[in-house]
Amino acid sequence: MSRRFRFRLDKVLRARQRTEDAIRLDLARVHAEIRGVRSRIESLSGGLIEVSMDSVLALPHPGESLRRHEGRLLAIEASIDVQRGKEKELLEELSRVEEKLIRARRDRMVVERLREKRLLQHRLSEQREERKEMDEVAVRRHVTAAPTPFTTEGSHRG
Question: Is residue 126 part of a domain?
Fold first, then answer.
């Protein structure tokens, strides 16, 4: 007679799994934002090179062109600095989210190990019960099959 295994902390385990999944999504979001910022930095750096090249090519008309190029260079450098600041903030956030994920994974694994331990205990209990039932059946068969003093040969014939 087998009983179904029921882990009392299944709801807790599922909640910890959902928490871990949510943190993984947050981690993926931060990674995507970092890639976006790095892409913008690369693009701006390319624009910086392009404006620098334009200023070199504008040497025949150095006056106004040079000031305009210098303004564009300063604007691009400021944008790059802003993006690098965002990148730094995102890297710090990434570190915090990774730590949070490590803690969430550890919390989930504690409950999973407890579940595995309880499942093993349940299986051992089931095996003990099954053996006990088999022993009882064997004892009953032995008792009913054992000869009684009246059923053995040479005993009372009536």
Answer: no
